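User: I'll paste a sequence; please echo it back and then give the predicted structure.

Assistant: Echoing your sequence first, then the prediction.
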Amino acid sequence: MGRLGIGDRLNANSKQGVIFTDEYRKVRLDPRTLVPSEHNKYAQDDIEELADNMLLVGQLQEVIVGRVNGHDRIIVGHRRTAAAVLNIERGHDNFKLIDCKVKEMTEAMFMLTLHSANIFNRRLSDWELTEGVAEFKKYLIAAKEAGEVEITGKMRDYIADAIGVSTGKMAQMESITNNLCEKGKEAFKNGDINFTTAYETSRLPVEKQKEVIESGEMLSGEVRQMVEQERQKKEPTAAAVKKFYEAHAKKYDEDRSKLKELCIEHMGRSHNGGNSGGVNFECSIRGVKLENAEEITWTRFVQLVNEYYPVAEEPKPGDDYEPAHPESITSLCYSCKHYSECNVKTGTCEKCDKYINKAEAEKTDEQRYSEEQDRIDRETKAKLKEQADAEKMKHLPSETAAGQKVHSIRLAKTYFNDVASGKKSFELRKNNRGYKVGDILEMLEFEDGKNTGRIIQAEITYILEGYTGLEDGYCILGIKVKNVDAEKYIIPGQMSVQDFKGVCNN
């Protein structure tokens, strides 16, 4: 759907304030008498260049004017008016009268028209659009209260439809306008943070917002993680949720899909509360408050119940799939958009010319935009780290055998034989030790949390990090076994201890 003009969304009474109608009267006015709007926040650049152009080709577009209480105030054409005044000052008297369109209107309709014109007729930055929408909403409410605009339905949905954005995007802009601290707004305005980061920051407490802005290095993904951490801090503990479920909600859980509605019906509407089942609780139609945590919605409560008490899904009649065999195969069918209608689905499908990833195909534009921003953020962060590491290397002394580090790490018994025999020649580790090629890993075998006494020494031969698919901060270490505590290590059915020592020494 293309962007709708505001005139398509307002009723007949409202159209008196819309500039895209024939109700404006064509007149010629002195540009020096026209009043620029102090509320016009958008760039007024290249006036001299525009004045030069108007000398060559004349005035190509009228200036749109609202006559408010006898004053002619500019709605559209601030740059044209300023250019005409400049030409008058240059001695070109033919610009003492310029083409205009004028309409009598109230203050509220003037401001509404001004901001709607700026929103619909300019290419705006994210900051300008957010600010413009906030102003547009303010004056739309004023015009509605004055009886000049009739609006049905939710204001947010109405404005979102009018300016051509999703209600989700509209909600994000409102969050920035209402909740983002002044430093955050200034950073957003100056382009120091993007829209996604501005929105995620606005969801944090003010103290955390200042931390994000002052750091100057927080990326949208990191801010989103901080938001999630703050949300979890405010949520009830797992123990509290489990106690409440067992004591009060479980009896309504014959069908998980109906749990929310039944909790609202039997506990929310009656505002149940008290201390029973080992937990303090207060219920409302909105949700439930457990212990000293903040209230969570019934939707969120059911999500937590699903997490702690997952429902085993049973095959439905007509589902002719079979379990994957071998277990290592993960069928494409289960994630395919056509799964429900396909008559050849199977639990072992690895390739299909009709496959469409359902999750990917059903992503919203906002989700795709957010993912793209996160990808850019990750790549930028990795590049900056790479540059910082390169700079550090310039100032480091040359590596020698004496500078070789030994890192003692735990190794699960499951992997000990595979590492010792060379079958497993890599380690996935969190790079919090400053691993370098040439360093030694002293790998201590652990079983059930206890050190068995068996040890492998391996040299780091390669380091892979900052790669797509690797979580930030993690790396893959290529290793070569140098020594094994052979007295305690035996490869069952393969070779003697003496033979194995010879292999290790080679």
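Residues 119 and 132 are 6 Å apart (CA to CA). Confidence is low (pLDDT under 50) at residues 1-21, 321-328, 396-400, 487-498.
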